[in-house]
Amino acid sequence: MKDRACIVGIGETKYVRKPGSGMTEVQLHLQAATRALEDAGLTGRQIDGIIPSPYVATAEQLAANIGAATLRFATTVHMGGASPCAALPIAAAAVTQGLADYVLVPTGWNGFSSARARNVVASDVKSLPGATIARDYYVPFGLTAPPQWYALIARRHMHEYGTTAEQLGCVAVAMRKHAQLNDNAIMRGKPMTIEDYMLSPMITAPYRLFDCCVETDGAAAMVITTAERARDLRKTPVYISGAAAAQPHPADEIFNRKDIYEAGMTIAAPRAFAMADATPADMDFAEIYDCFTFEVLQQLEETGFCKRGEGGAFVEGGRIELGGDLPVNTHGGLLSEAHTLGMNHIVEGVRQLRHEAGKRQVKDAQIGLVTGWGDFGDGALAILRR
Amino acid sequence: MSYTKPLPALEGHAGDFYGWCKKRELRFQQCTGCGTWRHVPRELCAECGSWDWEWMRSSGRGTVFTWTVAERPLHPAFADAAPYTPIVIAMEEGVRLLSEMVDCPHDQLVIDMPVEVVFDDVTPEITLPKFRRAG
């Protein structure tokens, strides 16, 4: 499957918090989708595959609205924030095997003004695969929301490996710095120093406010087709060189994994890099799902940029900032651009490889990584190249 | 004053788990095929594939594996509880349990500190297993 499918269209809505998008989530998905079609130079009629995200717009709704009259492939990935990235190997397989010619993947929500993640997880047992376990064994003890789940893992890592608050802060500061170069970033115009980070209020120790991503209203979308078709379309094709998704064991319960740091990424990353015939050292940039700062360190470790326990040292000294060895989240990430369940990471990866990233362009970017992280540590990644 | 925090649903195996807690016994499933203890409850043993298991009594003893201090509650039912301390206990039997400490301020918590179970009758129907410092 290496390099046989391409991302050919990307689209985003405006990313906003107060006073909210003023649109329904279906409208947001459709706005992002139609912008992705326009970007690709395609019409809705040409879309014959859709991978809708869970719970928002169905494939039927999306197809009816965009005029996809010959829909013949539709499936949904239930991996929370890993879903957009996990859709990449599925869409690539679908187009290369002839199940569809053009696959549309929209994602987004009114994550600020409507159903906020913290409320959904504790109140809706259908919100994620492990939600009944959370209801019966986590929520009665006050473990109600994602930052609390992951703060527990972060503290253990700090104990075992000496990871520090300042190192988590390096992640938050880098994302914020990059957001200053992005007109659509929620945190544009709000620069932050490491001192600001350390003074931000504790939410669920060791996580401070600035360890947590920005709940956002907005949506993003992409279109995938074969490499052959991609050459006839409007924009520089971005090739899916390697892609994989996986779940840790058990996937629906966080604290009884034999290896507490093993995530879906641990299993998926070697497969994706092998498919791409590439190594982490080859990456010109990485757009890493940053729901919280520690998850960036964990994914840097589990994807093989550094050894287990070395993530903290890896992010120090500006290494993950633009101009550093491995620019991470050049758009500002979930921490400082927006939280569209990670589709914005794929969109940014495509922009970088098309050399459309303007002031935040990684010079001569040829190959890069995008990741997704969801539910209780499901993971997905793709190695993209121009 | 009535108890207003969320409660487990007493369905299936969770009903049995909390039923034992109400009797002041912390029990986990143990596979009769290979002896592996497990939590949360499952239908099959992931190690050996056996469908056979029993609710076996835990020693109730374990050590602190990790914790977080919830300083800003993220659920309205816990608004008055903050700061509180969700904690993961590594039980002697090898399973890990998410719970709460009853007697230890978070600034005195230490990873690997020994703890033991206590039972908190939060409602007439539900008893939650919580932990205190061990001897």
Structural overview:
The complex is a heterodimer of chains A (386) and B (135). With 386 residues, chain A is an alpha/beta fold. Chain A has one domain: Thiolase/Chalcone synthase (Peroxisomal Thiolase, Chain A, domain 1, 3-Layer(aba) Sandwich). Chain A is built from 14 helices and eleven strands. In chain A, strands 3-2-4-7-1-8-11-10-9 form a nine-stranded mixed beta sheet, with helices on both faces. In chain A, strands 5-6 form a two-stranded antiparallel sheet. In chain A, a hairpin with a 3-residue loop joins β10 and β11. The mean pLDDT of chain A is 96. Chain B has one domain. Chain B contains one helix and nine strands. Classes of the chains: A alpha/beta (386), B mainly beta (135). At the A-B interface, α4, α5, α6 and β5 of A face β4, β5 and β7 of B. β5 of chain A pairs antiparallel with β5 of chain B, so a sheet runs across the interface.
- Low-confidence runs of chain B (pLDDT<50, min 5 residues)? none
Structural class of chain A: alpha/beta
User: What general form of chain B does the structure show?
Assistant: globular
How is the quaternary structure best described? heterodimer
Q: Write down the overall mean pLDDT of chain B.
A: 96
Largest sheet of chain A: 9 strands, mixed
Order of helices and strands of chain A: EHEHEHEHHHHHEEEHEHEHHHHEE
Q: Roughly what fraction of the amino acids of chain B lie in strands? A: 25-35%
**Helical percent range of chain B?**
under 10%
Named at the architecture level, the CATH assignment of chain A is 3-Layer(aba) Sandwich
CATH class categorisation of chain A: Alpha Beta
Largest interface between protein chains, with number of residues from each side: A-B, 36 and 39 residues
Give the radius of gyration of chain A: 19 Å
